[in-house]
Design goal:
The chain is mostly helical. Helix content is 62%, strand content 4%. It is built from 7 helices and 2 strands.
């Protein structure tokens, strides 16, 4: 904004009001998403894992679509990611140490193996709605040294690879908002 407008009390008041409105909207929708998981607990007790994973992937898409919409209103770049996971099949050549992590981890492998493809399917739905979304599950595919420090966290080299990818995504997409 022009310096004279930026100093306007009205602009600051309007911004606070808009920010408050959008914050309440995000909170309300986030609560609705959370309530949807709790509203009928029997759903999670009686449904098959596949149905629950489909539901979770659908909710994931709705949430990322909402964040994209709200970011667009403020002309803020939003980039959405599917994070790497040790249990995604063929996503990395596991070292003996990493194989040991898999063997001694919580029993989440089946959920990752069955759930991640459902999230990956949602990527195309998000992209058709203009959301910038990237699947980072294969980011370590050609790395043959240890990346994982436990069954959920990466070491400094892994962090660097992820951060470099995010920087590249920002660089490539930095004009996505201003081009609208």
């Amino acid at each position: 904004m022009l310096p004279i407008i930026r100093q306007s009390v009205f602009v600051h008041y309007a911004w606070r009001a808009l920010n408050s409105l959008l914050s309440r909207r995000v909170s309300a929708i986030s609560r609705d998403i959370e309530k949807s998981y709790k509203s009928d607990k029997r759903f999670f007790d009686t449904e098959e894992d596949d149905t629950i994973l489909n539901y979770a992937a659908h909710q994931w898409r709705l949430y990322h679509n909402l964040i994209h919409y709200l970011s667009s209103l403020e002309e803020v770049l939003s980039i959405h990611l599917i994070q790497p996971n040790l249990f995604v099949p063929d996503s990395k050549i596991l070292t003996p140490e990493e194989k040991n992590l898999v063997e001694n981890s919580y029993a989440i492998k089946d959920y990752v193996v069955n759930g991640y493809p459902k999230l990956q399917t949602q990527i195309s739905n998000l992209r058709t709605q203009g959301v910038i979304v990237e699947d980072l599950t294969d980011i370590f595919k050609i790395i043959d040294t240890s990346i994982w420090t436990d069954a959920a966290h990466v070491n400094e080299k892994g962090l660097r690879l992820i951060m470099d990818k995010i920087v590249d995504l920002i660089r490539v997409n930095k004009n996505a908002i201003s081009d609208r």
